[in-house]
Design a protein that fits this description.
about 10% strand; Double Stranded RNA Binding Domain; about 230 residues; mainly alpha; about 60% helix; Ribonuclease iii, N-terminal Endonuclease Domain, Chain A; elongated
Length: about 230
């Protein structure tokens, strides 16, 4: 493990390098080598992550209701999102794993990588306070939060359509993104929905999910179910 490489990835230089090493120390390695694991750091990092993301959503999206803010936070503070951050910053290369985890490719397991992100957040906080942690979290979650706010509060037309169509037995429902236009900061997507190979409708939205929802809504309108 090269400390300097990690620090470059997270854009923070540690005063206490041992804290960073502990953040990447999995329980399997800690048990084999009688040292501290990153479990306690994960616990602290989880709370810090929730607080900073909640504060950011509250401050930047005042139009959202309390329940909508909760949904947005839940969609970005999750294993999938943290795993993507870990992959982006190559955390798998820096993990200390026990022999069993090495054999089973623990450095690629989403749960282990997601936990390492929480541990690194806690280590940064203990070493340098809230400011560097806030910068790291917002830099990595700003875009996912923005995308999540585009879909929050949207009626789940896909589920409704599926339930109605499957009343008389199983059917094959397929959604496909057929077009993508606009610059990165203002994309528009077009999706189509097929049922048993037959195209029912298309929909347009600012995200792929939104486009699929609109396609499902139009499909219900087309077959006079709404």
């Amino acid at each position: 493990m090269n400390i300097e490489e990690v620090e470059k990835e997270i854009n923070y230089k540690f005063k206490n390098k041992k804290l960073l090493k502990r953040a990447f120390t999995h329980t399997s390695y800690a048990y084999e080598n009688e040292t501290q694991s990153n479990e306690k750091l994960e616990f602290l990092g989880d709370s810090i992550l929730e607080f900073i993301s909640s504060d950011y959503i509250y401050s930047n999206y005042p139009e959202l209701k309390e329940g909508e803010m909760t949904k947005v936070r839940a969609s970005v503070v999750c294993e999938k999102s943290l795993y993507e951050i870990a992959v982006k910053h190559k955390f798998g290369e820096f993990l200390y794993l026990g022999k069993s985890e090495q054999k089973t490719h623990g450095d690629k397991r989403p749960a282990i990588l997601a936990d390492s992100v929480e541990a690194v957040i806690a280590a940064m906080y203990l070493d340098g306070g809230l400011d560097p942690v806030q910068k790291f979290i917002i830099k990595n979650l700003e875009k996912p939060i923005e995308n999540a706010t585009k879909n929050v509060g949207m009626k789940d037309y896909k589920t409704v359509l599926q339930e109605i169509l499957q009343q008389n037995g199983e059917v094959s429902i397929k959604y496909t993104i057929i077009n993508e236009t606009g610059p990165d900061h203002d994309k528009k997507f077009e999706a189509e929905v097929e049922v048993n190979g037959k195209m029912l409708a298309t929909g347009i939205g600012k995200s792929k999910k939104q486009a699929e929802m609109q396609a499902a809504k139009k499909a219900m309108e087309n077959i006079e179910l709404v």
